[in-house]
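User: Run a structure prediction on this.
Assistant: Running it now.
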Amino acid sequence: MKITRASDYAIRLLAHLAGDGEEWTSIELAKELDIPFNHLAKLVQIMSRRGYVITRKGKGGGLKLAQDPRRIDLAEIVEAVEGPVTISDCIFNKSACSFSSKCKVRKCLGKIRNSIQNILSD
């Protein structure tokens, strides 16, 4: 598994908003966090739909964190941007590989995936 740039940006965005509790405009955040504005706008939409940020449109608008940052874990952020954390398709779908039923590695990959999930959720 690789944490993509989008996940990195989302983590930076929420961490920054958690740091001061202030309301920021998307333009200010893009400059402050060195995130291209278009990427930030997409992430703000995702984070807003998931209930992590509150947005206000128009003049004087902006965004701020919607919940206590202690209630947000990295696994939730990564999953919001990337989808479920996985190592291999066969972990969730045995039919993805014809060897799944007799594979010696599948169980180990599942443990690795669970460990990553637990660390991100900590």
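The chain has a mean pLDDT of 86.
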